[in-house]
DNA sequence: GTCTATAGAGTGATAGAC
DNA sequence: GTCTATCACTCTATAGAC
């Protein structure tokens, strides 16, 4: 499984053959097919591994979504994204070819969006963010943040540049900046110092 | 050419065979191969058509990048994106398989980013946007806007939803909102009214 | 369970007649 | 220029021996 994820990350899902995977893990293709019904089953297993890890990360930050905890989970998320880059890079290709995967991921996405929105609401509650002034402004902000997180790696690959995860983090905080209260700015400053 | 773009949009580049294209435009595959050296050449031609159209749009708004002109070009851009959805949906796959295309598109991207930044600077100059208070805040904002524009269609496809281009436009304006001066808010209100 | 060998279905691209 | 026919190759998945 780790062998196939490695190859998917390096060459892209469609460019990895069953022969490649078998060779990588030092078994025959026949043997590989014995353990996984077809290529889709291998992908499914890789995705399950990934989804489990992601849920763990989301869960950790949801307990107390203050700036400090959020900030500490952002970098691990981008490292996670690199470890499963095959998915984020080929996400359109994969969801088109495997409708079941698409459905599962859509549900995952919904939870992700809602947890971002919950983090915003929590920090409005603590007085770190201004109450919503323009209707739906925070829904749009949550949507933007989600897009930045999910498509950060793709944009990097497309532009052919290598960026530190911290640049992603700073760009996202920059979106939140204008909504910080005086108290929020202080909390933010101490949160990112650590 | 339009026939191949249609098929690429519907099924994705990798899922369209030379036979499919030949059938779509009612010629033989042999004939198709006579006119285009290989599949990459067909893609190249499709991309050139697309790039030309995009440059026209960027040029139109660059002349006077006030809110009215920007706002009027945003919706056409998202319609353009639908017309060439094969590119935006398969962008990672395509740039990986065709390094020449990747290079060309990276230059295109650079121009796109710079023109967004120029629009921001222009509106700081007219007093519609506050001068930059936090260093690089506007570079990050430009980057975010670019990502929203380029990955809007992909995020729609991944989530399996259909959205109006106006939602994309509103989400982008929502990013700019916090930086509007009093004057800028008035200009914006009259600009979007038309 | 693991292997080798191969079936079976495609694909991109070319050869050669017209 | 346009066609038909086909080459050469690749891939997934299976059959059958061990």
What does this protein look like?
Chain A has one domain (47-193): Tetracycline Repressor, domain 2 (Orthogonal Bundle). Helices cover 78% and strands 0% of the residues of chain A. Chain A contains twelve helices and no strands. The first copy, chain A, is elongated and about 65 Å long. The mean pLDDT of chain A is 97. The first copy, chain A, is mainly alpha-helical. Chain A binds chain B through residues 12, 14, 89-93, 95-96, 102-103, 105-106, 109, 134, 137, 140-141, 143-144, 147-148, 150-151, 154-155, 157-160, 170-171, 174-175, 177-179, and chain B through 12, 14, 89-93, 95-96, 102-103, 105-106, 109, 134, 137, 140-141, 143-144, 147-148, 150-151, 154-155, 157-160, 170-171, 174-175, 177-179. The structure holds a DNA duplex (18 and 18 nucleotides).
The count of helical stretches of chain A stands at 12
**What is the number of domains of chain A?**
1
CATH class assignment of chain A: Mainly Alpha
The multimeric state of the shown protein is: homodimer
Give the tally of β-strands of chain A. Answer: 0
List keywords for this structure.
homodimer, 194 residues, mainly alpha, Tetracycline Repressor, domain 2, elongated
SSE layout:
Two copies of one chain form a homodimer.
Chain A: H1 2-11, H2 18-24, H3 29-35, H4 39-63, H5 67-83, H6 85-89, H7 91-97, H8 99-125, H9 137-150, H10 152-159, H11 165-176, H12 182-193
Chain A binds a DNA duplex (18 and 18 nucleotides) through residues 17-19, 27-31, 33-35, 37-39.
């Amino acid at each position: 499984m780790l062998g196939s994820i490695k190859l998917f990350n390096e060459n892209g899902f469609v460019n990895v053959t069953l022969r490649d995977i078998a060779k990588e893990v030092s078994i025959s293709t026949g043997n590989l097919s014995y353990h996984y019904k077809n290529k889709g089953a291998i992908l499914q297993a890789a995705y399950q591994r990934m989804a489990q890890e992601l849920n763990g990360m989301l869960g950790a930050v949801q307990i107390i979504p203050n700036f400090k905890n959020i900030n500490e989970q952002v970098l691990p998320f981008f490292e996670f994204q690199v470890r499963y880059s095959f998915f984020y890079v080929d996400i359109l290709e994969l969801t088109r070819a495997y409708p079941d995967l698409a459905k599962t991921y859509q549900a995952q996405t919904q939870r992700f969006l809602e947890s971002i929105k919950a983090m915003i609401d929590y920090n409005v509650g603590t007085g770190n963010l201004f109450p919503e002034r323009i209707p739906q402004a925070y829904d749009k902000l949550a949507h933007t943040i989600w897009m930045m997180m999910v498509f950060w790696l793709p944009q990097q690959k497309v532009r052919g540049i290598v960026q530190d995860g911290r640049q992603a983090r700073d760009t996202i905080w920059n979106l939140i900046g204008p909504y910080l209260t005086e108290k929020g700015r202080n909390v933010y400053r101490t949160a990112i110092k650590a």
